[in-house]
UniProtKB/TrEMBL annotation:
Residues 83-423 form the Aminotransferase class V domain. Keywords: Aminotransferase, Pyridoxal phosphate, Transferase. This is Aminotransferase class V-fold PLP-dependent enzyme. The keyword Transferase applies. GO terms for molecular function: transaminase activity. The lineage of its organism: Bacteria, Pseudomonadati, Bacteroidota, Cytophagia, Cytophagales. It holds the Pfam family Aminotran_5. The keyword Transferase applies.
Amino acid sequence: MNASENRRSFIKKASALVGAFSIHSIFNELHATTWQTLDDSYSDWSPVDLASNEDYWSVIQQGYSASSSPIIILNNGGVSPSPIVVQQAVERYNQMTNQGPSYYMWQILDQGRERVREGLAKLGGCSPEEVAINRNATEALVTVIYGLDLKKGDEVIGSTQDYPNMMQAWQQRALREGIVYKQLTFDFPMENDDEIVEKYRKAITPKTKILHLTHVVNWNGQIMPVKKISRMAHQHGIEVIIDGAHSFGLLDFNIPDLEGDYFGTSLHKYLSAPIGSGMLWIRKEKISKVWPLVCAGDPQSDNIRKFENLGTRSFPIEQGIGEALNFHNAIGTKRKEERVRYLKDYWAKKAIEIPGVQIHTSFHPSYSCALAGVSVDGLTPAELSSKLMSQYKIHTTSISLGNIQCVRVSPHVYTKISDLDRLVAALGKIAG
Ligand SMILES: Cc1ncc(COP(=O)(O)O)c(C=O)c1O
């Protein structure tokens, strides 16, 4: 096969490229040929075996400018950098936009939205008619939180370990409308689904209308058994909202299979889409009853696009999602999940052997992937995080939330093994 045949075959295999200008995709220009060869070489490797193959992952790392950052970035759970192709796409669309925004945005780039929707739906294993594109997980989830009809006395069950923006949205509804917002607290890490499901079940009363769940708890990386909790909730006639900010584009699942009713996520975390991109999924039959935050025509319509009336915003960012999908699909979700879990295990298993170092996250693959919490005896999370940055140029984030006190470390596919070796060595010196 010659180079152009090779490229064509790869594109076919990676399914149609996504975006307004898919034929001229930057992914196609930069990576298709090399990645085809790479893919051919490892086609019969299982994702678990491939996870530790540095030859394969070094090619992927080169796709990110962040892989050569002078600072070791280990807070990808906060927000992730985009691959070079995504950055270039956004720049290209921006330049085009600024030649005449009202024409290029509204008449050209706007045409690409349906392709992006289809691409996101394919990755999420759902219908495009259930996917709205917006700016972040907060916007997606708060649309649902504020958009559901609830009356005074109706109960919502969440947890103190959900994300603050969502807790605050529920608290505002409680204050304003008299709904009752109950919060559970878990003693993470946990490795017993029944115990978690049971805790939610016990909190349910005849007045409970909604369960608000976080798929991957951002504080310590705990993966929650959302499917089992949702199934139990539905047996009680209760709807389920899932915060998937840390799961989409990382864990290999289909959104409807989680059995929730509503799912919101950022795309600028593990999918590496442009910063300021998010997605809302609503089960088709539930769309009509959710009021949009910004009304577009018929607020009770069952057309998911009613949630996209966001006013003037960055169309280049939105279209850049297409290149992030191309990049992600060329790796594959399962390979990415296993690689990132391998990276977490790589550093955390070494770190836990250091006297005075504690790991606050399960090592069981069902309960953790990218994120893990670490602490050093005698240091607060803020002190540890600050030492890692000031003395070793390692950027992390400190977590101090009730019973979760740790520094959160979250690698990504562009993270090098040598960076993790530097982290482990730094922890050794700090604890020593
Ligand atoms: C669990 C969880 N949900 C939601 C969000 C909010 O994401 P965004 O800032 O993209 O709205 C975050 C951000 O880190 C998060 O960790």
